[in-house]
Amino acid sequence: MKPVIIAEKPSQAKAYADAFKVKKNEGFFDVQPCEAFPQGAYITWGIGHLVELRDPKSHDPKWTKWSLQTLPILPVEFQFQVAKGKAKQFGIIKKLIYETDTVINACDVDREGSNIFYSIFDYTRARNKTIKRLWINSLEVDEVRKGFLQLQDNRKDLLMYEEAKARQMSDWLVGMNGSRLYTLLIQQKGIREVFSIGRVQSPTVYLIYQRALEIERFVPEAFFELEGTFQAEHGSYKGKVKGKMKAIEEAQELLQKHLINGTLPGTVQQLKKEDKKILPPKLHALSTIQATANRKWKYSPAKVLSTMQSLYEKKLVTYPRTDTQFITPNEFSYLESQVEAYQQLIQQPFDVVSRKPSKRYVDSSKVQEHYAIIPTKKIPTERVLAGLPSEERNLYEEVLRTTLAMFHSNYLYQETTVTTEVNGLAFFSTGKTEIDKGWKELFSNDKEPKGTKEPTLPKLVLHEQVKSKVAIKEGQTTPPKPYTEGQLIAMMKTCGKFVEDATETEILKEVEGLGTEATRSGIIETIKRHGYIEVNKNIVAITEKGRVLCEAIEGNLLASPAMTAKWEAYLKKIGTGTGSSELFLGSIAKFLNHLIQEVPAQLHDKTFHMTTTETSVARKEIATCPTCQKGTIISRKNFYGCSAYKEGCKQTFPANYLKKRLSDKHIEDLCTQGKTQGIKGFVSKTGKNFDAKLVLTNGQLKLDFL
């Protein structure tokens, strides 16, 4: 019987077909007899997720209507279905599987690829078939042929499937239950929105929200530095006294202590020169090329992944969904043998420093399913390169240049440290002189990040006398910067630093944070689609809807990266055969039951404010205006105002007061009683948190401290 090869999608099947002599049929290729397949074979394909989990109402009609009374949604048995519009292709696959005795899983070599294959295979209800696994990192013809000659058994593949299936089911359970629970409870507060909850997406949104709060609550503080401008024989330079002072008086006292006033002579007291080097960069994993491409060209992580996938299918780069930055000696061997040909692609020849593998790049112990992203053996023609879309060309060159850097020399420079003394007060200056550009010449078109370029120093001599002019420079502390879209990938990967518990931090390090290398860009796209964040000119901002979600889950495990990490750690155990899917899904069920019992009480006293929902909600009538007694105070976009403003009433209330969001209830109390209950979380101008009541006096807000 001819074995049946199942690829993940048509483009992948076509790449396999290119390695053999085939006849094209509807829904499959017929491979002619060859060394790998003496009797021939059939190559067919899924269309991504051909088989998917059914929605709650398809499991049980009682889950058709969204209701708190029908929670939790915990199916006795999960049910699957063929995805809409894909029944014809599923029928072709099923027929081919039933007519063979051997099926080869040739989907992507990762958990999701295993999930796609087995969800299709299991749904056919086929029995007594031998299953083999194609395990390759490149779609080049010779790699494909070699891979089919060295097929593996499916033991590891089955464990990856168990892990992927447990992840899929747990995500479904958390999403279906959490989304209904929070949406219904928040809607009771008057906000007519649907709030999607996710095992990974919710803590990701919460981390972005935390950064927004840090920025909003940041109170700038002035600081003072002493800066000297020095005129030497061969030019001028600047230096600073170490340390920042909080009060100008401190700086003035220091100047008085050293009798520094106006222009004085200074002396070059120390002159230290040190040769330094920067090693070539490590090879790219998916997350590093996503971060690099976002910094250089503002490409979104999702755009980078889809572009890299396209380059992979064009056989120009190796498998992109990798989390390692190492290769094995096999890959190094072909790269080394073709290094001059790769150089010609970018028209930048250089002398190869070493043709021996370095542990910085080549380490088989650091390579599991996949190795780092590198160029394939295929050397594209100038015409092929010129025909690539600009994004593909940029990313291919980035991979190529980073790989070539491994064969280049170190970047060498000399760092000069100068200590200039004025009346016994030391000023420090640092300068940099480039000695050998080395590997950096491969990236000569890259702009250096702002603030990283060190000033050049004039030629100086030890004990040289210089003229000095000293000034007090005032500066201000600056708030944290909002994330760029590329930084979200790193934030998700290293979120352990946001967790105080040492054990939880270790777990987050072990599982590499939130999500996986292959899923993080998809999670970012999901939270954008749900309206929790906005990206404008590459800067990420939390939306009002995102704030409401975070205020709702605050203090709950759904906001905790550590909880997701613990789940991820156990999922990895399932993937290694040391964990149980049943136990894991049982713990998810307990968590959801706990959530359903606790959350209504947690949200009972919370108030939410959102101005961008339906007009009826955004313009909600609060109370009769306390000033004119004719109009009504209405909730508007960024404030509360009187409906009689056209008749001259100027009564308004801010939506935010001393960095505290005021709720409809607060405004109602001010209008009807002239004061509020105690409110927690005001922030003073000095950055201190305090609690107080608000009092309305002659139309103005006053504080009544508790």
UniProtKB/TrEMBL annotation:
<dbReference type="InterPro" id="IPR023405">
    <property type="entry name" value="Topo_IA_core_domain"/>
</dbReference>
<feature type="domain" description="Topo IA-type catalytic">
    <location>
        <begin position="157"/>
        <end position="596"/>
    </location>
</feature>
<dbReference type="InterPro" id="IPR013824">
    <property type="entry name" value="Topo_IA_cen_sub1"/>
</dbReference>
<dbReference type="InterPro" id="IPR003602">
    <property type="entry name" value="Topo_IA_DNA-bd_dom"/>
</dbReference>
<keyword id="KW-0413">Isomerase</keyword>
<keyword id="KW-0799">Topoisomerase</keyword>
<dbReference type="Pfam" id="PF13342">
    <property type="entry name" value="Toprim_Crpt"/>
</dbReference>
<dbReference type="InterPro" id="IPR005738">
    <property type="entry name" value="TopoIII"/>
</dbReference>
<protein>
    <recommendedName>
        <fullName>DNA topoisomerase</fullName>
        <ecNumber>5.6.2.1</ecNumber>
    </recommendedName>
</protein>
<dbReference type="InterPro" id="IPR034144">
    <property type="entry name" value="TOPRIM_TopoIII"/>
</dbReference>
<dbReference type="InterPro" id="IPR013825">
    <property type="entry name" value="Topo_IA_cen_sub2"/>
</dbReference>
<dbReference type="InterPro" id="IPR003601">
    <property type="entry name" value="Topo_IA_2"/>
</dbReference>
<comment type="similarity">
    <text>Belongs to the type IA topoisomerase family.</text>
</comment>
<keyword id="KW-0238">DNA-binding</keyword>
<dbReference type="InterPro" id="IPR013497">
    <property type="entry name" value="Topo_IA_cen"/>
</dbReference>
<dbReference type="InterPro" id="IPR025589">
    <property type="entry name" value="Toprim_C_rpt"/>
</dbReference>
<keyword id="KW-0479">Metal-binding</keyword>
<keyword id="KW-0460">Magnesium</keyword>
<dbReference type="InterPro" id="IPR013826">
    <property type="entry name" value="Topo_IA_cen_sub3"/>
</dbReference>
<dbReference type="InterPro" id="IPR000380">
    <property type="entry name" value="Topo_IA"/>
</dbReference>
<dbReference type="InterPro" id="IPR023406">
    <property type="entry name" value="Topo_IA_AS"/>
</dbReference>
<dbReference type="Pfam" id="PF01131">
    <property type="entry name" value="Topoisom_bac"/>
</dbReference>
<dbReference type="Pfam" id="PF01751">
    <property type="entry name" value="Toprim"/>
</dbReference>
<dbReference type="InterPro" id="IPR006171">
    <property type="entry name" value="TOPRIM_dom"/>
</dbReference>
